[in-house]
Structures are given as structure tokens and as C-alpha cells.
Amino acid sequence: MYLASPPVPSPSTLTALPPLAAVTLSRAAFGPAPGDIEDFNSRGSTDMARLTSWVDEQLDPQSIDDSDLEARLGNPAFRTLGKSLTQLWAEHYRPENITWEERVRPVYEVLYATMTRAIYSRRQLQEVLVDFWHNHFNVYGYETPNASVWVHYDRDIIRPHVLGNFRQMLEANAKSTAMLYYLDNVESSDEGPNENYARELLELHTLGAENYLGIMPQWDVPLDSQGRPIGYVDGDVLEVARCFTGWTVANGHWSDPNDPDSGEFYYRDFWHDRFQKYVLGEFIPADQAALEDGLRVLDKLAEHPGTARYICRKLCRRLVSDNPPENLVESAAAVFHDNWQAPDQIRQVVRHILLSPEFRGTWGAKMKRPFETLMGAMRVCGAEITLHPDDDDSQSLSWLMEKTGHHPFAWIPPDGFPDTRTTWQGSTPMIMTWRIINWLMRITDNSGVHKLDVLSQTLNAPEMSDPANHTPRNLARFWFIRALGYEPDAAQITRAAQMLTHSDSYDGTPWGLDQAIDLSRDEWPHYWQSGLRTLVALILMSPDFLQR
Amino acid sequence: MTRMNRRGFIKTLGMSGLAGLGWRNMAFADASDTQNIVVVIFLRGACDFLNLFPPVSGDDRSLYETARPNLHIPLAQTLPLDGQFGLHPAAAPLKTLFDNNQLAVVRAVGNTVQPSRSHFDAQALLESGTPGTKGTSTGWLARYFSTIPDLPPSITIPSVAASSYTPTSFLGDPAVLTMDDPDYFSLDNAHWAWDGRLEAVLPDLHAGDSPVEKAGSQALTAMQIIAGEDFSGYVPGGGAVYPNGYFGDQLKMLAQIIKMNVGLRMGALDFGGWDTHSDQGNGATGYFSDNLVTPLANGLLAFLTDLGAEGNYLQRTTVVVQTEFGRRVRENADYGTDHGYGADILILGAASQIIGGFHGNWPGLASTQLFEGMDVAVTTDFRQVLSEILIRRLENPYLGAIFPGYTGYSPLGVVQGTDLDPIYDNPSDEIFSDGFED
Predict the structure, then answer these.
(1) What range does the domain containing A538 cover?
(2) Residue contact A504–B206, C-beta within 8 A
(3) Does residue A536 lie within any of the structural domains?
């Protein structure tokens, strides 16, 4: 049944380093939408000039007109995205007589708004970074109360800071309803301190496990040249936990008659451990002003060079390669550390990474994750798709994406979705992603028009205006260029074009690779229009499209 | 598309480097397979073993009732086992297995190197098999395969993770099949008339040797193997009835893959939801009883019954049930239990292969006996139990490669088998790189 001696695989024909437009739009965006490659290439006379122009525009997202996206998000089905935290709390979490659907409505609206933005926003880099920071400060979104207040977490905690200052972002996060619940700090008091948040604050949000020195007395940790401990130990976790006791949510706690039950951040002074603490080499005296010792911890963490290296390594992993070059990590970390109090700190760091030779010179060292593949597929096909919680196709897409393992806000542990190939090269993420691509090619609107209308996209393209050009080879080349932003190896085009030489219902003489097909028809035995859709699906399943 | 062997395929692509290290080849396996199989079930969220096997006598009984005034399992409801510990009333199928010598329970097991009460840490430390080192990029099941690089070509599915993505224990195993729903393990189609053509041509596009092309080939090969099986029409043997829900479905799928004779060696399966911080229920009612213990016990009995109904499948299969840590002895104010330390490992299989009953040193529940005065202590390193399975059931003594840094192994005596001298050498780092990064 199976071959005893498997064939030796051919050497890869994947292009070594594609044009910079394709590199940039695949890694700093969710892939090229129609016109994006041309726009990038019109931005100057050299690669560096074009890249600089594109990056600087993207780093100033407010300068980019996004009215098409805003119109889409104006769909009346999005009825919670404008609610304040206290409204979300009062209307979606507190009531006892509402349905589960209404309780979790906010997270599903953010889910579909996130997809809509990934597909349609022209502020693509911002959306890539929102995804990055959501994963960095991962919270599982589909349990209450976090599902009910998710609009607040996305809109007010993550988004305002993605190009701003890390220290401010960290404080917003430490005070966020979602994180306080997710990592149990909401319950943490001097009588019953909970170390969950403190541990992840050090291990995942700031210094990273790479700066964890394990079980060692705090005073034995070596100091760097500036007198900082080089990393943290278990004792620091417990002391940090004490610093954050009393940082909680106004949730109507029975012990506190003053608690307004608003769902907002709330400092409960009588839960705070008032005595002195020893954190990362520094004594924090007893009886600090309200919040003061927690804020002091955030300062120390945000300033620490270990935090700079850890965050920058993750950013480089997202934007460049699974194993980013150490010199790029170090130079980005220097920018991060030197500007730790600058309001545009993260913007400077991202600019440094995107304009680096490593960004321009690296290709194929990452595999797209399912979300990136699928949003990119809709972008390159010029999809006309309306996503919101009341739409059947949207619900199907969400359900199918769960099966890829990469459904936004659905990663349960606090470390966020893995960002390396080892997790995503498994059979299930691959096959489910491909299955969804086929599904996307099938779905139609109420008048029967395909939501990914690749037929019109083909017929309306100037280079495809002559029906004589509609050969399998030309169609494959056209769609490869659309999908990738460059022309791949001719052999790969030929392999894909072979698909159209037979349909399953046609067993006559094989159709020629250079023989025009009739795209005005979709009937037995050739079903050419469906054949074109399947060809585009095939190209979106190709290794060329799956790497970045 | 030409069919090809997954493990052999990977090997051709550069995983064959170990052959030169002189490691032994594994015996051949095909439809007349006699090689053993290990299925690792991970109870994610930390199982409350204290309520699964409550103490029924001695000081520990009164200490248990005192620590859990609301949550303890009443004696009248507890199923008798050995006089020292009883069984949760919803776990009656486990009593059948216990009495049949098909269940061994090692008490007070855990991570002795780096105790952690963080789910995320504790799971990663256990599943990586490096309990003192975080961030290990490979899992212990993956490293098991790296010690047997020359699997014969007839083995098409040596490893399965019954999950939607690869668990840490399998990280770095390039051949692991991650699948949780065979009914959806196919491409479907964009249009019926082109379905077959797309599937015929897609492998050609992924025929190259880059990592993404190899991943694509892998997925397509796996899909072909799975497509040949009728998963939805499967009738379990011996009248076995799997519980409804994810856990039962995954167990049933693994049983079918075992019976496909595709050379399965290692299966991993997740059962989540054990983090019972509040309202876990007591006795024979409530969340812990209905949603967790009932499907666990029914599922395990169904799995062993199904495998035992024909052939030698049950004799070849050993089931290991583990969790990241136990739960706090004292109940909390929310009628639940918080994160603890010492847990149990369950070993199940054929009566002829299991040394049934309770094993390990039970440390006791007195406050001076508890870890940090709060949790069941750990008296057995989890690697000792897993090493015994590796040596006695899988005839694999490469403990240094699978559990780097672990020494001093001696068998507890939970399964039958031949003892081999452990090999603690840790070969070149080459095998620890993940499979596609060659």
C-alpha cells in the first residue's frame, strides 16, 4: 500500500529572496491587497527609499485614510464596540437574566472587527502589532467576565499603546479588568496573596523566562554594571505579588461597602500588604502611598535591559524570523532601553527593526500561521465579505478557525499563541487552513456572487482582457503574482497550471497548458469558472504562499 | 499522488544523522506488529486526586474530613479499594479495573526538581521531560522517537497527538500526526468537479525540501492515510461504550488508529477542565463528579474493553494518566480547591502487564507531612514512573536522551517487563533540534 522506499524530495524551487514589496507586505502586513505592491513600488527610486516611505507612513496610522474600514465597522451589527467599560459591565456581565450569547457578544464583535481590520484596514502594520501585543499580554477571551468587557481590553488597553510607550502599556495592562481576572490578581490580598499575575508579569510580560535564575536567594543574584540584579528569582515573584495586593476590580466585593461595582480598576487599600518589600535589589519601604510600590515595580521592570532584550527578541521573531539574528535583537534592545521613557518608544523600535538589513535580507524563515494565511487569502482575492456575529458565514468561519488551533483570543495559557513554525507545521493546522481556503472559495452572497470573486478579478484585470490569454499557464501565473506579489519559479507555475488540464468530470484529451479556456461558462464537462476558483485555492495552498 | 511513509520520509530529509551514533534499530513492525504502544493522557488543569482516591482509614481520614468539611467524599459513598484509600463513587469503572489488576496508581508523584504551582510552568516542565529547565524546545515523547531513528518504512503513523495542535510532549517530533477530528481531516472542495484534481496536484507543489514544503507533504500523506479509514462508522469492540464528548471521541479515535496497524508507538491525548477552584461538588454529584470523573472512568474502561476485544492490542498498550500537580488539601472558601503539589499517575493496561494496586510512598496529610504545610508532598519523581514504562514496556533504556540530567533510576514495579541498564549518556545536541530545522 505504501512505498517501501520513499522518493527523494526535489530541491525546493521557492524563490530565495523576493522583491522587497512582497517581503514587507507579507511580514509587516497581512499580505498584499490589490494595488498594494504597485503602491509600495511607486514610493521612490530605491528599495530603501520605498521601504522607508512605506514604514514611516504605517508608523503614523492616523495619517492613513481608513474610511472604507470605518464604514464596514459602522455596520449596525457592531452594537457593543462603542460601549464604555462600565456599560459593558452593567449590560453584559452583571445582569442575571440575559442569554449567554448576549453575555459574550462583546468578544465576538471584537473577533469579527479584528478580522475585518486585518482584511481591510490600510493601517496594516498597526493591525499586525495589535495581534502581537494581544499575544504578548495574552488573555483568554471567551469566558466571563472577560468576554463581556473584551471591547475595553482591545480598544482601551492594547490598541492605544501598540506604537507608544511600553511602561505606559504595562501599567494600563496591570490595571485592566481582563488581566486582573485572567491572572487572579483580582483576588490578591495581604491575607491571601495570589502570585499568578506577579509570576507572569516577570516571566511573560517583562523580563522573560530567559532572565529567570530559578531558586536562589535574592541577595545572591549577580549585579550588572549599573547595579541591577541581572535577573529575577522566586523570591522576587513573591515580593512582587505583595506589591500588587489590593490591585483589583470594582466588582461589588462583599467585604467593601465603598466598592462601586463598576467593573473598573479599583485599589482596595485594606487588602494591600503595607509592609516593606525587597524587589529586584531594592527595598521598598513600608506604608507607601496608594499604588506606589506596584508602580515602582513596573518602573524597574520597564527600565531593565533584560526586558528590552526579551521584548525585542519577540518583536524580531514576529517581524523577521523564527530565530532572529542576535545582533538585530541587541541593537533593537538598545533603542528600546535608551527610549524607555519616550512616548514613541515602540514606534522607534519597530522602525529600527523594519529598516534593518536583516529585515530586508531574510525570507522564508517563518511560516504563516492560520490566521495570517486566511486573512492574507481574503486580501489577495479582493474579498467582499461582511463579518459580524449575526452572520452565518461569519459563525462558520469562526468555528472552522477554532479547528486550525489559531482562533483569535482563544489561547488559554498566558503565553500567547506560539510564533514559530514548530507548532503550526502540524497536520491539523495545515489541513484545516487548506479546508477553509476551499470553503472561502465556495461562499456566495444572497445574489449568488462569490464573496471571493476571483472570476471578476480576473476578467477585470487589464492583462487578462483578451480571452485568448485565458490559458491555464497564464491564469496560474496571474494568480501567483497576485497572491505572492512576485512571479515564482516557472516550474511551480506549470505544476499549478496542470490542475486545469482535466476536471474530474472530463476524461477527454488533456487540455493544453497554453490552450485558452472559456471563462464565460461553468457547465459540464469543464466547469471552467469553478476550475479557476479551484486553481486560485490551489495557489493559496502552495508553499510559496504559506511562508513569509 | 504517490503514497509515502511519514517517518521514512522525514528520515530521508535529514533525520538519519543518528544512525551513525550506533543506536539500535527498532524491531520491525507491520500488520503483525508486536511492538508496544504507550498512550499518555494529560488531565489539564490539575486533577484533585485526593477526592478521586480519598483516604478511608487512619489519621488521614480525619485530617481529610477536617481539611474538607464540605468537599470530602462521605465514607458511605466511597467505593472500597485496599482499605487505606477508596474511590470516588462516580469512578466505579476504575474499581472494576483495579480489582482486575488492570490499574496501578502511583501516589504523590511530581516534579522534584523545580516545584511550580503555575499550570503553564508545571505542564511545560513535565511534558518537556526536563523538570529543572524551562524553554526546552523538544518534548519527551519527541525525544523518545529520536532514540529510535530507524523505524521501518511500514510504519506510517508512529505518533499521534489527539489534539488540534502539537502538545509540548511532542514538540520536535516532525512525524507526529496532530488530529482531533478525523471527520474534518480533509480538504473538502471548492467545487466538486475539481476536487480530485486539486488533491492530485497539491502534492506536486509541496514536493520540495524546504520546511514548509515538507510540512505540506506530511499533512497530505497523513490525510491520505486517514481518508482510507471509516472513522464515523467505527464500531468499538467488546460492546465498549465511549462517553459522549471530546475525551471519549479522542479515545475512540486512538483505539481505531491502534487497530489500523500503522505502527503507532506513542499517542497523546488531552482532557481539560480539571482546574476546580470553585463549586467542584462533593460525593456523587457536581462538576468534578459529572463532568470529569465520570467521563474519565467510563472512557478508560471503554478504551481497554475495546482494545481487549480482539487481537493483541490490549497486551501491547499501556495507558498513562498524568496531570501537572495535585490540588491543595484544604478546601477554599468557594467550595473548590487551589493549586497544590503532589499528584498521582495512573497506569492501565492488560492484567498480564500491570502490577495493580497503589504504589509509591504516601506521605500523609498531617501538617508536618505536607509540602509547605499545605499540599500533598511529592515522594516519587514522575520520571521514575515514565522511565519504567520506557524500559519495561518499550524496551528503551535511553533515559539520558529522553530525560536529560535524570540519574539514579530504579523500577517502582508498576508494570511487567524486562529491566535493562539505563543509558544516561546524552548524545549530541543534534537530536534536540526540532525536526525540520536540519
Answers:
(1) 454-546
(2) no
(3) yes
